[in-house]
Design goal:
77 residues; mainly alpha; Arc Repressor Mutant, subunit A; two-stranded antiparallel ribbon; 2 strands; globular
Amino acid sequence: MAESFLDRIEVDAEKLGGKPVIKGTRIPVALILELLASGMEPEEIIREYPELSPEDIKAALFYAARLTEKEILFAPE
């Protein structure tokens, strides 16, 4: 199931300079994460971007989780 979430993300040098986006859209994963962090509910994001599905929102979160597993994180000062 986890890998099916990653299938919803694409990285294409011709789309937004190779930034990860939801497959079939030009909506970057980072935008979805920023909207969630600002307090928007998934349903609100989908109303704003109707081409997204609840699974796309979950895929963005899963993608970010996978990235942070592999990165060195720095504690805020």
